[in-house]
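Posting this for the archive.
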Amino acid sequence: MKKILLLFLVTSSLYSQSEYPQDYFRNPLDITLVLSGTFAELRSSHFHSGLDIKTQQKTGLKVYAAAEGYVSRIKISHFGYGKALYITHPNGYTTVYAHLQKFSDRLEKYIKECQYDKETFEIEVFPSNTELLIAPSEVIAYSGNTGGSGGPHLHFEIRDNQERPMNPMLFGIDIKDSRKPFVSAVYAYPKDKNAIINGKNERVPLRLIPQKTGDYEVEKITAYGNIGFGITSYDKQDLAPNNNGVSNIQTFYNGNKSLEIDFKRFSFDETKHIKRLIDYEYLRTKKSRIQKLFIEKNNPLSLYKDDYDNGYINVEDSTSSVYKVRIRDFKKNETWVNIPIRGKITDIEYFEEDLSNKTTVYSNQTTELKSGLITVNFYKNTVYEDINIDFNVNADTLHLHEDNIPLQKNFYINYDLSNYKSEDLDKMFIARLYGYYRKPSYVSTKRKGNILSAGSKTFGTYTLAMDTVAPTITPVNFKDKKWLSKYRYLKVKIDDDLSGISKYRATVNGKWILMEYDYKTNMLVHDFNDNIVKDTKNDLKIIVTDNVGNSSTFEATFFRK
């Protein structure tokens, strides 16, 4: 290990200036890499920050360190990355391995000591650069399905020294891909009220005509004024049927480059602004992502380059022009979309939105909306631009527009509970109503005196809710007074119907034991191999508390030799 540290110190300066070193990082698994998710792939609220590598629909595959280095961070959480490991390398980059089932023996021992010391399952630690040195190709963990994972896979990242995720394929991580990206839809957008597209002043779907070459022609459109375009596009690798994200998009107007979007690297600070790249209203109503090929106001994304007039084009009357889109995957397989345009002024009847019942929220200043005992605060830069929304209050129910407008940060809802009984206040929370049956969903709620507050980035309908029912605790693989000598695991199911689980604590004979929580299965699991339970007779006690403080206690006795 001393040799590894010396090598780390000597080579750190050699590699710090090299861009995208090749043959430095190895495949983190010992199987052919097949992806379920590509780098910077479009998600609903963020860009995907790594490669999602399929693990043959199972957990427990060996995960190897992509290169030598040291463990700089370990984080375990119920949601998000689940069990995640971070290794910093001599060349200045950090690799990330997430949704792990467990760590290697020595790393598992290290993190469990930390968990038992802090008496918590969720934990984040930052070992020193000499504490957990990693050898080349060392087995560091086993693949899993923890956290927010939707199925067994390994999430793998490479980050630069500013913690910005980069496409691992830039470093030679190879994925077999000889297939061209494909386009499923094309749209045209007017920039302002003076623009016309096929006789309309609104988003217009265009007729896409696939060609034998794999490229696309679009039926000629008539237009006038400043307009932009949007596409729905995907890529497929050779060994997987799923649709993945593309790597690069370029647009050209009459042969001149208009805009480029390069999905090479981004920062976590900007990933939330994906809502400015995609057509958020279309996503929420049609469940499909249109990538806008123009840059709107207050769009800070760093993915754009070589843009002319923010990607918009100006179409003049009595002209013929051509707009082209080139979509590439990482392997440079490319697809073209050709859009012929005839410039023509057309008389249209404009649709004027009825604003008589709307309320304006401003982007550059604080806006406070108040009705009855409910106040909603939009602080500066909550919205990307000034918007007109529905704001209605009926008793305890707040209707705050529909979830079709993107927001940069939380707005805040405040309920004045002065008219409620004091004994009820502790059990009340703010809920968002969702789905056909308008089921209440807990929104993280704080109370100060008689004021109940919650922040949200999602428009919709909110109401006051009350939870007086404690969580349930159900043993899964044992009963009271049962011998568990041949069992490795102790399993308990916990659940809460309304406000949700907030915290839990388990002890045996008064001593805290680690129980791992999987919110997807509502399961708490203790591993007897932790060697904490050593007595023959053992009194188990589990306390589970929901988000408004309702608490349940489960007690049982079990025996082990």
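Confidence is low (pLDDT under 50) at residues 1-17. The longest helix spans residues 2-15.
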